Each structure stands twice: as C-alpha cells, then as structure tokens.
C-alpha cells in the first residue's frame, strides 16, 4: 500500500505540503546496545507471603522493583534514566497454553479500536444519537471542533481493515458495539435496529473466517443520548437495567460466536472526564460527587451484566466476561518516605482500585473510604460523597470478573500534598497527592503520555498480588504522535515504545503474572475524544482529509508483525536495535 507522492494533502507545520522522502532520512542514531543479563529480576514469592494485601511500599522492596541505579561500568548492566529497573534483561516468550480459556490456545496478539472513534456513519442505517455525537457537535468541546461523524468510515471499510489484520496475523481484534446503533432510543422496548445488528454480525463473521478472535466491548463511552436527556445518564441508577438489557441482547445475538466480552472500557474516564471535569461527554462538572456516583452505577451495571451472562448464557456459550480498567502506574518520588509511598498507593487505588477492588474484593478501597469520608465530614456533610454498597451489593459485586482487561499507557511520580477541604470538593483534591513526571521521559505525542516502560511491569505485578493473580488481557497499550511531526509513517518512537513496553510485559509474565494477551492501541489513527484527530495512535495512518479514508502502514506495522509471528522477540539482535526495523520505513516529511 504505497503512498503516492502528491496524493496526501496533509499540511505540515510551516505550510509545506507533505511529500515522500527516502527511508534513509528517517534513521535515528542507533541506541546503545542493551546487554543481556541473567534472570535476577524474577520476583521471589517466598519473600512475600501476603499476596492479597501487599502494599506498594512492600512491592518497592521486591527485586524487580529495585530503583537503584547500577554503575555505568558494572558488567552486564546499563544505567537507565528516570531511576528505572536496574535490569534490562530480555525475555523470550514461549507459546503458552490456556487451560480453561475458550478458543485461545497460545498468547494472543492483536490490536483494537472502538465504535465512536472509528465507525463513522453516525446517522446511518437507523443509528440513534450517542452522548458523543451530541457533545462533539457543540462548538468548543473538541480540538478544532472535530467530530467523528465520518472518522475512519470503519462501518463501510471493515473488510479492508480485516485484510490488514489478516496480513499481520492477529490472533484477536478488540472493538466495541455502539449501543445506539443497536437500540437507537436506548431501550429494547422501543426498537431494535436490525441493520446495526447485521453490521456487527458481518464484522464478527469475517473476523472468525480469518481466524481472528473478536474481543468485544459493550460500552466504550457512547451512551444513547436519550438516556442522558431523560435520566441524567450514569448519574441515574436506572442505567443499570438499561445497560443490562443491551448487554443481554448482545449475548443473545452475538454470543454464539463472541467468547470474550468486556462490559466497560476505562470507566475512570467515563466517570471523571464525563461527570467531574466535563472534558468528555456528557460534559458535566459535578465536582466531588458526579464521578463517584457515575462510577457507583457503572460498577453495579458491570456486576449485573456479569451475573446475567453467568446465569443465562455461560453454560451454553462458554465465554468470559471481564472489564477493561485504565491503570497507569504511580511511583513514590522518594521510596523511603512513608508519606510518598502511601500517596503513590492512593494514586493507584483511586485509579484502578476504585473499580478493581469492589469487583475482586467486594468494596471500595479502604483508603478511598477513609479519605473521601473524612473530607466530606470536614465539609459538614452528613454522609460521605463516596456512595456506599449494601452488604448484599458487596457480595453480588465481588468476584464478577472472569478476566481483567488492562489499559496502560504511562506512569507518574507521586508525592504527598494536603489539600484543605475548605477549598471545594474534587476527586483530584480528595487524593491529597501531586503527580510529577521526569522531563527526561520521552513524550512524543499526547500531553499526558510519557514512555516509562518499567512502570508496566510494576503495575502487572501489583495486580497479581492485590487481586490474586487474575487472568489479564492487556486491552490498550500504545503511544501517539502529534500530527505536525510530519514523519507520520516513520514512527521510530512507537517501535521503541512497543519494544520496551512489550518487553516489560514479558518480564512480568516471567514473574508469574497471568497475562494472556496483548492489544496494541490502536489499529488505526482515529478520533481521540476531546483531542479530535490531533493525536494519532494508529499502527496505520489514516488520511482523514480524503473522503475514502485510505490507510497507510507506519513502520511499526512491520515491527509488530514480526513480534506476532515470533510470538515475542524473535532474536536478540532484533530486540537490541530498533534501527533495524527502520529500514522498513517509508515516511512523510
Ligand atoms: C489537584 C487538582 C488537579 C487537577 C488536575 C485536573 C487534570 C485532569 C485531567 C485528567 C486527564 C487525564 C488524561 C488521561 C487520559 C488517558 O488516561 C485516557 N484517555 C486513556 O483512555 C484511552 O485513551 C486512548 C487515547 O486517547 C483512547 O483511544 C481510548 O479510547 C481510551 O480508552
């Protein structure tokens, strides 16, 4: 799929029209070789008998979490900036068996996307409006007032996309079902849109015909607008039943073929960005309460859908139901300062633990109950702003996760900071911490996304110890670039990011973390929510200015393809030097 000179109207900074260049211009300096060291990073379980309540402080003492920098001259070790892990050991992944895992016989590699971000066809074939359709059409909400009305036109081009996936030999593809494409008015009683069902039927069938396992998300943020208008969306407990009806129909109509279901994608963003900061649809700024209430209903809805599957469909369909949580890592600024250690623990608990702890252990993290409860009392409120689960609800919610989906992008350094409760409520001030970044961390694209690979391994080990080593699918991991870089197809930084992050995941596998699959985020450049099309996460470049939305492979396609075909890193040389892959690079300048 070569890009033709002059065929690409995208403008670079400075107004130059993009044109082809030779690949040689794109070669970066060869990074220093990373020496192979022995397996001294393996975590010692014997040293950590308390697997369920391990604190972040204890984890920092684990051998794999060592932040001590090796001397530059020490044989076999290479110092890393940012106080990362001492070891740069390379791991060689072996094919893994999956006892009890329906369909996937080995470690699963794939990529993903979501309905609103990629499908387009926002008002076609009977689809109803979602909160994102309405939000994006309001002026001033999205960068450059972009909308995903057309986006990648995935609704029409999914066959082409499956051809790309087939060529890359994906084991799975992760996508989401648009609720208002199935129930245009949000609820089953009103109308089922058979054209929408047919679209997903065709997509699923074609994936399976090509031996690609569908991993299907039921909610990737596109709530039917009518439910927002009538009930206030996730502020209202009635969403629990409406979502359950939608999920139940999906199980009924697609569950004979879909065996991996994700109830919610990244509910943290739905709750915090949708109902606290208002940067995402539905754009509400209910500071200090809105996010907690939305999350409360989302957790209940997740549990209800898991029980629906468990009681009505599991014996027949033999699939799995999980949730995908955004889980960025928090590292104490000072690892011997107890206040920093606790602050970093709070960061992780207010992020992933907010959802994972009820689902695995039955209730919110104690630290959330303590902090929000105390601040609510100081503010003169009679009850905590964090809602409470009844004891029946706790037992109903506990254990509703067949696998845990993890969306991981980045890491923060965390230090303690007190926010006096008199200064107004907010999810952010409730945590009493500050997030910091190391300016030396690479940050090629999104403002919030720094490449900190060692945080990934720590996170995965933390999940293992906190939640009893659940089955994990990495459901999102990737990096963006800003459009104005003008080297869109020569994504050397993305290859570096994948190399480093996948390698840390493989180390975690060796540590004994139960990771079953990896999903590169994302297959295509697509609509990135409030950032519109200004950030590109795709393995494939999409020319959004061309109405046919052509896709062009970035250099990382070949790189990831080789990882997939080798079931990991094929050989040491490959791991050591990304520059080898840059010979595959066709790029724009
Ligand atoms: C003490 C007061 C402090 C106030 C600070 C307020 C700052 C709030 C800003 C929060 C912004 C967080 C941004 C985080 C973003 C990502 O974690 C999130 N977008 C990840 O979700 C996935 O992102 C992918 C890339 O955009 C996207 O393609 C995918 O669909 C999402 O699931």
Could you walk me through the main structural features you see in this protein, from its secondary elements to its overall organization?
This protein is α/β, with parallel strands linked by helices and 589 residues long. The chain has one domain (20-588): Glycosidases (TIM Barrel, Alpha-Beta Barrel), CATH 3.20.20. Helix content is 35%, strand content 13%. It has 18 helices and 17 strands. Helix 9 packs antiparallel against helix 10 (290-317), helix 15 runs parallel beside helix 16 (492-511) and helix 16 runs parallel beside helix 17. The longest helix has 28 residues, at 290-317. It is globular, with a radius of gyration of 23 Å. The two termini are 18 Å apart. 53% of the residues are buried. Ligand L5UD5Z77 binds next to helix 14.
Mean pLDDT: 82
Give the termini separation.
18 Å
Beta-strand residue fraction: 5-15%
Number of domains: 1
CATH architecture: Alpha-Beta Barrel
Bound molecule kinds, no repeats: the ligand CCCCCCCCCCCCC/C=C/[C@@H](O)[C@@H](N)CO[C@@H]1O[C@H](CO)[C@@H](O)[C@H](O)[C@H]1O
Helical element count? Answer: 18
CATH class: Alpha Beta
* Rg value: 23 Å
Unreliable residue runs: 1-101, 578-589
CATH topology description: TIM Barrel
Q: How do the strands line up in the largest sheet?
A: 2-3-4-5-6-8-11-13
**CATH homologous superfamily title:** Glycosidases
Overall morphology = globular
Count the strands?
A: 17
Helix content: 25-40%
């Amino acid at each position: 799929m070569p890009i033709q000179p002059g065929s690409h109207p995208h403008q670079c900074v400075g107004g130059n029209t993009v044109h082809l260049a030779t690949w040689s211009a794109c070669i970066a300096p060869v990074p220093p070789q990373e020496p192979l060291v022995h397996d001294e990073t393996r975590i010692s379980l014997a040293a950590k008998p308390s697997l369920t309540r391990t604190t972040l402080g204890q984890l920092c003492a684990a051998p794999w979490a060592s932040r001590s920098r090796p001397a530059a001259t020490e044989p076999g070790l290479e110092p890393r900036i940012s106080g990362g892990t001492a070891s740069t050991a390379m791991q060689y992944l072996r094919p893994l068996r999956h006892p009890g895992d329906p369909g996937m016989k080995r470690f699963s590699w794939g990529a993903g996307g979501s309905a609103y971000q990629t499908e387009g066809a926002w008002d076609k074939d009977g689809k109803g409006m979602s909160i994102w359709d309405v939000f994006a059409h309001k002026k001033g909400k999205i960068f450059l007032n972009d909308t995903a009305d057309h986006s990648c036109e995935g609704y029409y081009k999914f066959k082409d996309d499956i051809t790309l996936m087939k060529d890359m030999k994906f084991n799975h593809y992760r996508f989401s079902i648009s609720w208002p494409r199935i129930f245009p008015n949000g609820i089953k009683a009103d109308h089922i849109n058979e054209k929408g069902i047919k679209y997903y039927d065709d997509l699923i069938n074609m994936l399976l015909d090509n031996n690609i396992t569908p991993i299907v998300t039921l909610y990737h943020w596109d709530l039917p607008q009518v439910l927002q208008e009538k009930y206030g969306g996730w502020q209202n407990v009635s969403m629990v039943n409406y979502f359950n009806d939608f999920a139940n129909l999906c199980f009924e109509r697609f569950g004979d073929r879909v065996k991996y279901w994700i109830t919610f994608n990244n509910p943290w963003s739905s709750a915090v960005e949708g109902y606290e900061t208002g940067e995402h649809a539905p754009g509400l700024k209910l500071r200090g309460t809105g996010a907690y209430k939305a999350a409360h209903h989302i957790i209940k809805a997740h549990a209800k859908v898991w029980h629906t599957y468990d009681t009505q469909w599991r014996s027949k369909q033999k699939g799995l139901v999980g949730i995908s949580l955004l889980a960025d890592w928090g590292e104490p600024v000072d690892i011997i300062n107890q206040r920093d250690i606790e602050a970093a623990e709070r960061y992780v608990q207010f992020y992933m633990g907010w959802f994972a702890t009820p689902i695995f252990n039955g209730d919110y993290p104690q630290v959330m109950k303590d902090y929000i409860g105390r601040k609510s009392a100081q503010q003169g409120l009679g009850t905590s702003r964090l809602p409470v689960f009844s004891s029946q609800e706790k037992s109903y919610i506990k254990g509703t996760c067949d696998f845990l989906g993890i969306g991981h992008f980045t890491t923060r350094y965390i230090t303690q900071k007190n926010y006096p409760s008199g200064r107004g409520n907010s999810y952010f001030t409730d945590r009493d911490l500050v997030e910091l970044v190391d300016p030396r961390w690479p940050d090629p694209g999104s403002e919030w996304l720094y490449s900190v690979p060692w945080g990934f391994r720590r996170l995965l080990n933390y999940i293992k110890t906190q939640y009893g080593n659940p089955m994990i699918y990495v459901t999102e991991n990737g990096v963006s670039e800003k459009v104005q870089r003008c080297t869109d197809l020569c994504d050397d930084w993305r290859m570096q990011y994948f190399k480093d992050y996948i390698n840390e995941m493989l180390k975690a596998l060796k540590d004994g973390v139960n990771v079953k699959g990896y999903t590169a985020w994302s297959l295509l450049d697509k609509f990135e929510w409030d950032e519109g099309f200004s950030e590109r996460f795709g393995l494939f470049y999409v020319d959004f200015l061309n109405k046919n939305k052509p896709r062009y492979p970035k250099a990382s396609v070949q790189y990831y393809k080789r990882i997939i075909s080798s079931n990991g890193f094929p050989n040491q040389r490959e791991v050591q030097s990304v520059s080898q892959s840059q010979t595959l690079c066709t790029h724009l300048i």
